[in-house]
Protein backbone atom coordinates (compact mmCIF):
# COMPACT_ATOMS: atom_id res chain seq x y z
CA UNK A 1 0.00 0.00 0.00
CA UNK A 2 1.07 3.56 -0.68
CA UNK A 3 2.01 5.61 2.41
CA UNK A 4 -0.95 7.67 3.63
CA UNK A 5 -3.58 5.42 2.04
CA UNK A 6 -6.13 3.40 3.92
CA UNK A 7 -7.40 -0.10 3.44
CA UNK A 8 -11.01 -0.16 2.19
CA UNK A 9 -13.10 -3.20 3.08
CA UNK A 10 -16.70 -4.38 3.24
CA UNK A 11 -17.87 -6.60 6.08
CA UNK A 12 -21.00 -8.45 7.12
CA UNK A 13 -22.59 -8.14 10.56
CA UNK A 14 -24.61 -11.36 10.73
CA UNK A 15 -26.63 -11.59 13.95
CA UNK A 16 -28.65 -14.67 14.86
CA UNK A 17 -30.33 -15.14 18.22
CA UNK A 18 -28.32 -12.30 19.75
CA UNK A 19 -24.99 -13.70 18.54
CA UNK A 20 -22.56 -12.18 16.01
CA UNK A 21 -20.81 -14.30 13.38
CA UNK A 22 -17.02 -13.89 13.45
CA UNK A 23 -14.22 -15.49 11.44
CA UNK A 24 -10.50 -15.94 11.91
CA UNK A 25 -8.03 -16.10 9.06
CA UNK A 26 -5.29 -18.66 8.53
CA UNK A 27 -2.74 -15.80 8.65
CA UNK A 28 -3.88 -14.85 12.20
CA UNK A 29 -6.04 -17.66 13.62
CA UNK A 30 -6.20 -16.12 17.10
CA UNK A 31 -7.88 -12.86 15.95
CA UNK A 32 -11.57 -12.75 15.07
CA UNK A 33 -13.06 -10.42 12.45
CA UNK A 34 -16.31 -9.84 10.62
CA UNK A 35 -16.52 -11.83 7.39
CA UNK A 36 -15.80 -9.81 4.27
CA UNK A 37 -12.86 -8.34 2.43
CA UNK A 38 -11.38 -5.88 -0.03
CA UNK A 39 -13.04 -4.99 -3.32
CA UNK A 40 -11.23 -5.87 -6.51
CA UNK A 41 -10.60 -3.05 -9.03
CA UNK A 42 -13.94 -1.82 -10.39
CA UNK A 43 -15.96 -3.82 -7.85
CA UNK A 44 -18.55 -2.16 -5.59
CA UNK A 45 -18.42 -2.63 -1.83
CA UNK A 46 -21.64 -4.66 -1.77
CA UNK A 47 -20.44 -6.73 -4.74
CA UNK A 48 -17.15 -7.42 -2.95
CA UNK A 49 -18.99 -8.47 0.19
CA UNK A 50 -21.25 -10.89 -1.69
CA UNK A 51 -18.22 -12.37 -3.50
CA UNK A 52 -16.21 -12.74 -0.28
CA UNK A 53 -19.10 -14.43 1.56
CA UNK A 54 -19.43 -16.91 -1.29
CA UNK A 55 -15.68 -17.62 -1.52
CA UNK A 56 -14.90 -17.71 2.20
CA UNK A 57 -18.10 -19.13 3.72
CA UNK A 58 -19.91 -20.80 0.82
CA UNK A 59 -23.08 -18.72 1.32
CA UNK A 60 -25.02 -15.94 -0.30
CA UNK A 61 -26.24 -12.80 1.46
CA UNK A 62 -29.74 -11.46 1.82
CA UNK A 63 -30.53 -7.74 1.71
CA UNK A 64 -27.62 -5.51 2.78
CA UNK A 65 -28.32 -2.62 5.18
CA UNK A 66 -25.40 -0.27 5.89
CA UNK A 67 -24.84 -0.23 9.65
CA UNK A 68 -21.80 2.05 9.74
CA UNK A 69 -18.62 3.15 8.06
CA UNK A 70 -16.00 2.28 10.66
CA UNK A 71 -12.49 3.73 10.87
CA UNK A 72 -9.93 1.66 12.81
CA UNK A 73 -6.50 0.10 12.43
CA UNK A 74 -6.60 -3.10 10.35
CA UNK A 75 -5.80 -5.92 12.79
CA UNK A 76 -3.71 -7.97 10.36
CA UNK A 77 -2.12 -5.29 8.17
CA UNK A 78 -1.64 -2.65 10.91
CA UNK A 79 -2.64 0.21 8.58
CA UNK A 80 -5.58 2.63 8.70
CA UNK A 81 -8.79 0.95 7.57
CA UNK A 82 -12.21 2.15 6.53
CA UNK A 83 -14.78 -0.63 6.75
CA UNK A 84 -18.34 -0.50 5.44
CA UNK A 85 -20.31 -2.77 7.80
CA UNK A 86 -23.56 -4.18 6.44
CA UNK A 87 -26.27 -5.92 8.44
CA UNK A 88 -27.36 -9.01 6.55
CA UNK A 89 -28.47 -12.59 6.90
CA UNK A 90 -26.96 -15.50 5.06
CA UNK A 91 -28.52 -17.86 2.55
CA UNK A 92 -27.30 -21.20 3.92
CA UNK A 93 -25.03 -22.29 6.75
CA UNK A 94 -21.51 -20.83 6.69
CA UNK A 95 -18.51 -23.14 6.45
CA UNK A 96 -14.86 -22.03 6.69
CA UNK A 97 -13.19 -22.09 3.26
CA UNK A 98 -10.38 -20.30 1.37
CA UNK A 99 -8.35 -18.22 3.87
CA UNK A 100 -10.78 -18.69 6.77
CA UNK A 101 -9.41 -20.78 9.66
CA UNK A 102 -12.49 -20.85 11.91
CA UNK A 103 -16.01 -19.56 12.50
CA UNK A 104 -17.37 -18.48 15.88
CA UNK A 105 -20.55 -16.91 17.22
CA UNK A 106 -19.80 -14.12 19.72
CA UNK A 107 -20.23 -14.20 22.67
CA UNK A 108 -20.54 -18.02 22.67
CA UNK A 109 -17.49 -20.13 23.37
CA UNK A 110 -15.59 -17.96 25.82
CA UNK A 111 -13.08 -15.17 25.39
CA UNK A 112 -11.75 -14.34 21.93
CA UNK A 113 -9.28 -11.76 20.70
CA UNK A 114 -11.39 -9.37 18.62
CA UNK A 115 -10.13 -7.14 15.82
CA UNK A 116 -10.09 -3.48 17.00
CA UNK A 117 -13.00 -2.44 14.77
CA UNK A 118 -15.16 -5.34 15.97
CA UNK A 119 -14.58 -4.97 19.70
CA UNK A 120 -14.31 -1.20 19.77
CA UNK A 121 -17.05 -0.15 17.37
CA UNK A 122 -19.20 -2.86 15.78
CA UNK A 123 -20.23 -4.73 18.93
CA UNK A 124 -21.12 -1.46 20.75
CA UNK A 125 -23.20 -0.32 17.72
CA UNK A 126 -25.07 -3.63 17.56
CA UNK A 127 -25.62 -3.58 21.32
CA UNK A 128 -26.93 0.00 21.11
CA UNK A 129 -29.42 -1.12 18.44
CA UNK A 130 -30.61 -3.97 20.66
CA UNK A 131 -29.31 -6.69 18.34
CA UNK A 132 -26.78 -8.15 20.80
What CATH architecture would you give? Alpha-Beta Complex
| Element string (H = helix, E = strand) | EEEEEHEEEEEEH
* Gyration radius, in Å: 14 Å
What is the percentage of strand-forming residues? 35-45%
Q: Compute the number of structural domains.
A: 1
The CATH top-level class label: Alpha Beta
What do the pLDDT scores average to? 93
User: Number of helical segments?
Assistant: 2
Fourth-tier CATH superfamily name:
Nucleoside Triphosphate Pyrophosphohydrolase
CATH topology: Nucleoside Triphosphate Pyrophosphohydrolase
Distance between the termini: 35 Å
Structural class: alpha+beta
Oligomeric state of shown chains: single chain
Overall number of strands: 11
Shape: globular
Which regions have little confidence, pLDDT < 50, spanning 5+ residues?
A: none
Percent of residues in helices comes to 10-25%
